[in-house]
Amino acid sequence: MGSSNSLIVTLFLILVSNIWAATSQSIQEKFYTCISVNSKLPIPFSKAFFAPGNASYSSILESSAMNLRYLTPSVPKPQMIFTPLTENHVQAAVQCTKQVGIQLRFRSGGHDYEGLSYASQTEQPFLLVDLSKLRSVDVDIQDNSAWVQAGATIGELYYKISQKSKIHGFPAGLCPSLGVGGHITGGAYGSMMRKYGIGADNVVDARIVDASGKILDRKSMGEDLFWAIRGGGGASFGIILAWKVQLLPVPETVTVFTVAKTLEQGATKILYRWQQVVDKLDEDLFIRAIITKENGAQKGKQTVQNSYQGLFLGRADRLLGIMTECFPELGLTQKDSTEMSWIQSVMYIGGYPPNTPPEVLLQGKALFKNYFKAKSDFIKEPIPETGLEGLWKSFLEEESPLMLWTPYGGMMSNISESEIPFPHRKGVIFMIQYLTNWNDAKPESTTKHMDWVRKLYNYMAPYASMSPRESYVNYRDLDLGSNKNGTSLEEASLWGTSYFKDNFNRLVNIKTKVDPDNFFRHEQSIPTL
Ligand SMILES: Cc1cc2nc3c(=O)[nH]c(=O)nc-3n(C[C@H](O)[C@H](O)[C@H](O)COP(=O)(O)OP(=O)(O)OC[C@H]3O[C@@H](n4cnc5c(N)ncnc54)[C@H](O)[C@@H]3O)c2cc1C
Ligand SMILES: *[C@@H]1O[C@H](CO)[C@@H](O)[C@H](O)[C@H]1NC(C)=O
Ligand SMILES: *[C@@H]1O[C@H](CO)[C@@H](O)[C@H](O)[C@H]1NC(C)=O
Ligand SMILES: *[C@@H]1O[C@H](CO)[C@@H](O)[C@H](O)[C@H]1NC(C)=O
């Protein structure tokens, strides 16, 4: 078997190299030939390479791409999609993109806000390496840890943990379809952040392919690079193959709730109060505010709704005690509160209908997709009621506006700003994500909605963190600036300090050391000196 297989492969390679010699090869052919020679395992063409025009090409390209803005016909598409089946294939992909002289983009879960993992506005041609076939999850309860490959979703990790133990969890994103590759390297906050910090705070080892195509782990990459990949943002330092994460205790029973208040029900006063208490609450309690526009009780009249969605790492009676003492204005009752297992709470917060079996997490699919634009802010002083009223006015002017207000405090204040590159710590009361989404590719729709969110962002300037106005790197925002040919370090530091504050300088130094030729680059990659 083995020898006849390798004979076929050898014959095939001879054939391919003859074609190479005989004709001037396309980029696809050159890349395929190089991969076949460089990877220790022969790769069946039919399983891992997709060129434009191939029936599977579009479905793979679109499979995990979350922002439809970056799939429209005018956006340049990859010359080829490669889906590695082994770690070794990823090494070969680095070596071969260099050899062929093509740009490289790589994708884990495809949730990048500016499509940077599957579209390149600045450099063509480019190859897309899609890591979705590298998605094993290996949970070791005795060791309190798990190895998870980059192409797995965070929901798959949560599910696999819950299959092994009812009292272990991991503190990362709220949306189960996020890819662990891009998500954790940009930070990864979620409903247990006030107790345990973010995902990147709880990584203990990693495997990565560097710019020379070598596989490194924590020991061989050294503490500088290991620091940089825990929060320094995607695709600047190498391709993460897998993370080793630290599992953390969760109670067997947790409690969730959602309480909604419209403007007519006193939303403004309650949200003002929320800002005063939310970062000081017991660290077992996480209450975020989801702010939307809804039809009001009065026919034809629209209103703004604030939904308070909570996760409490404990039972309902203790939760109600805390709420009565610290935040009675919300009026939380026993009836609003539901006790469940931690994995059920993941499903609840992820937006699945009640009683959906958690096995759905294994499908790794997003619940929705649309055209969207988002921005973020960090708030350090409560926004006064007059400020909130201006926000509502802006909200009522837009079709599908959304804000997520995520509370900080607790463990987030206990970790120093320079512990990892993610710098948004002590002093932050909450983070805001502003988002608008729409359903068509028309340029005038795009302009209209993008203008709206930019105007809202300007309106919020007086209430947001200043010098720098901080932003979350996992909410990538190209309005903050981008690398162009010849961009100076000063220009890059505008968005760089917004995402990383003083850690930006250390990231630039590490980047210069580990990738001096700037092989891993994109519109907002960390520049070299
Ligand atoms: C619906 C939705 C919900 C979200 N919810 C949350 C949330 O609850 N908490 C939170 O913190 N964030 C959240 N985010 C933001 C999310 O963390 C980022 O978009 C993150 O970058 C997604 O990672 P990904 O692998 O899915 O995306 P990708 O698009 O695959 O990658 C994002 C970036 O990382 C790079 N990258 C991808 N794989 C690797 C790798 N293996 N090694 C190195 N770099 C890589 C890509 O090239 C790209 O630059 C949400 C986003 C969306 C769209
Ligand atoms: C599309 O690509 C796959 C995988 O490489 C291959 O098996 C298939 O034959 C291709 N189909 C067409 C129509 O080119
Ligand atoms: C944060 O530090 C304070 C003061 O040392 C401590 O009381 C609190 O328990 C810590 N919080 C967490 C989540 O570790
Ligand atoms: C960037 O600029 C350099 C010199 O200014 C030039 O040689 C190079 O081709 C440019 N690259 C791109 C992608 O435009």
Automatic annotation (TrEMBL):
Record field: transmembrane: none
Pfam families: BBE, FAD_binding_4
Residues of the FAD-binding PCMH-type domain: 74-250
Cofactor: FAD
The keyword Repressor is annotated on this UniProt entry: no
Signal peptide residue numbers: 1-21
Pathway: Alkaloid biosynthesis
Keyword list, A-Z: Alkaloid metabolism, Disulfide bond, FAD, Flavoprotein, Glycoprotein, Signal
Domain of life: Eukaryota
GO MF annotation: an example: oxidoreductase activity
Family classification: Belongs to the oxygen-dependent FAD-linked oxidoreductase family.
UniProt name for this protein: Berberine bridge enzyme-like 15
Organism: Olea europaea subsp. europaea
